[in-house]
Specification:
This protein has 10 helices and 15 strands. By secondary structure, the protein is α/β, with parallel strands linked by helices.
């Protein structure tokens, strides 16, 4: 899969700009605050139909403009696609090959992209919610149905919590319909999360060892908020029943996938607590690299890679590992930097010098 071209109109710092990309390496450089990350975000939005950071759509529109447009030509196994995204306030319109996409979730997974970001360290050190969100986003890209399931679950959760907010008047019978719906959707969300966490574990362990050069063992574990056992659906049903008094007292549902945790470990110790800054950076790098292998193994596809100024976050050993991996990567790469000399990639590539939202392209050989 390759992104051939990109047209931006009123997207963040880009009033009007057109890009034609290289099949392999696209090096985007310039001083800070010139628009390098904005370009990567546009590429990610076009391929994943969402930005790689949690922002409101209106924040992506150039100040003073009423809408933003992202348009591109994408070469996929099915042929050449034209994707077009229009953002107006909080409204998002998607067109594929000139046809309106009414349900965006059906377009998820059509293209695959993996983004390496400096903020990835927050996956290791941040909140359980951030790690759940990370795992769900990964699953969306591999099984688009997961998004619809998760949305249903959260709708039913809101309804159950609304009943619980009535306090002492709530009875188990008044929750039955929402319990049934939560059990049906929630057990599938949990099972899918557990499945992909299990698949990621050996990939992460191998890549972490290769990148760090140490004998430390990295791992991850998906922990449910109840004792799931082998029969997740039955266990969840029993857990909801058992937690009724506590849920009524607190006014909200205390068990389910919204309370589960994806934990990361180094040598059996919780990485969110014990990992050093260097170990956290290495873990985040290994985690993203594991995604590449998982996408290849699951879908037989090579994703597009986006790397946003990650070289400045890595020491020499990890930088060599990263560029060794990229050198053998067969797909398309977009990488931003303030210093092109830090990018240790050889061969033909296209460079884009970004200054104040304008790009100066050049074809070079290094």
């Amino acid at each position: 899969m390759k992104l051939r071209s990109l047209t931006l109109r009123n997207f963040r710092s880009y009033a009007a700009e057109n890009f034609a990309f290289h099949d392999r390496v696209n090096l985007i450089y310039g001083e800070n605050a010139q628009g390098k990350t904005n370009l990567l975000e546009a590429v990610h939005f076009l391929l994943a139909f969402r930005p790689f950071r949690q922002v409101r759509h209106e924040e992506l529109i150039t100040i003073g403009a009423s809408e933003a447009r992202i348009k591109g030509e994408i070469e996929s196994p099915a042929g050449l696609d034209e994707a077009h995204i229009i953002l107006g306030g909080e409204k998002r319109t998607i067109k594929l090959n000139g046809k309106l996409v009414y349900n965006a979730s059906k377009a998820l997974g059509r293209y695959n992209v993996v983004a390496f970001l400096p903020s990835d360290i927050e996956l290791v050190k941040g909140s359980p919610q951030a790690r759940r969100r990370y795992l769900d986003a990964l699953i969306f890209s591999l099984e688009p149905a997961h998004l619809a399931e998760l949305r249903k679950y959260h709708r039913f959760l809101v309804q159950r919590n609304a009943v619980l907010s009535r306090g002492r008047s709530v009875t188990p019978e008044s929750l039955e319909i929402w319990d049934e719906k939560l059990i049906e959707t929630g057990s599938r969300v949990i099972s899918r999360r557990m499945e992909y966490a299990k698949k990621m574990t050996p990939l992460l362990a191998r890549i972490y060892a290769d990148s760090s050069g140490s004998r430390s063992e990295a791992g991850l574990r998906y922990a449910t908020s109840f004792a799931a056992g082998d029969d997740v659906e039955s266990a969840y049903a029993e857990s909801l029943k058992a937690s009724f008094a506590k849920d009524r007292a607190r006014g909200h549902t205390t068990v389910g996938p919204h309370r589960d945790n994806l934990s990361f470990f180094i040598d059996g110790r919780d990485a969110s607590v014990y990992a050093s800054q260097g170990e956290s950076k290495n873990f985040a790098l290994a985690l993203r690299a594991s995604e590449i292998d998982l996408i290849k193994a699951t879908l037989g596809k090579t994703p597009v890679l986006l790397l946003d100024d990650v070289t400045s976050e890595l020491d020499e050993r990890r930088r060599k590992f990263l560029f060794g991996m990229l050198g053998g990567f067969p797909g398309q790469i977009f990488i931003t930097t303030t210093n092109p000399d830090e990018v240790l990639l050889k061969g033909e590539m296209k460079t884009f010098r970004i200054r104040k939202g304008r790009a100066e392209p050049a074809l070079v050989k290094r």
